[in-house]
Amino acid sequence: MAPASKNRVKVYHLNAEGSWEDQGTGYASIHDKCIYCNAEEGEHPILEAPISMEEIYQRQGETIISWNDPQVGMDLALSFQEAENCQVVWEELCSVQGRAEASTFRVESPTDSGVEYERGSNGAELPEPDMVHIYSWSSP
Questions:
Q1: Count of alpha carbons within 13 Å of 5, Cβ hemisphere only?
Q2: What are the pLDDT digits (tens) for 63-113?
């Protein structure tokens, strides 16, 4: 499957110690009611998550979508390189769920977040999620 090259993201999951672990950088897309992220290096998938019809997804700031995946019982996050691309994926996600007012779920980021950035291979910066930007759920 050819990923949408403009939707560059870092994929994270929350480990048992409560820290976000980087699962890799790739390209996110939504197809067939699933969120896919293929690795930047090579074509192997680093995320394939069926979209839940429940309102489990959160838009955090301008560039992060997070959720607790009920199928695997794990908190996941997509940290987008570009805010516009995060908005596009967010709207596609809400559309699959049948939510018409996708923009009403948007959460503004704090003006002084203290977020550290990592330079990608092409020099672009991707934010690393932290508890200021990602709402953490308790696993059932």
A1: 3
A2: 999 999 988 889 999 999 999 999 999 999 999 998 865 443 334 444 344
Question: Are 110 and 132 a contacting pair, CB within 8 Å?
Answer: yes
**For residue 89, what are the contacts with CB-CB under 8 A and spacing of at least 6?**
7, 28, 29, 30, 35, 65, 78, 80
pTM of full prediction above 0.90: no
Alpha carbons 68 and 77: distance in angstroms, whole number: 9
Q: Is 70 helix (H, G, I), strand (E, B) or coil?
A: coil
Residue ranges and CATH numbers for the domains of the chain are 8-127 (2.30.29.30)
- Say how far apart CA 84 and CA 123 lie, in whole Å: 18
Residue 86 phi/psi, 5-degree rounding, is -65, -45
Strands in 1-140 per DSSP E: 8-14, 20-31, 34-39, 45-50, 57-60, 64-69, 74-80, 117-119, 125-127
> What is the C-alpha separation between 33 and 62, in angstroms, rounded?
23
Side-chain-side CA neighbours of 81 within 13 Å: the count stands at 19
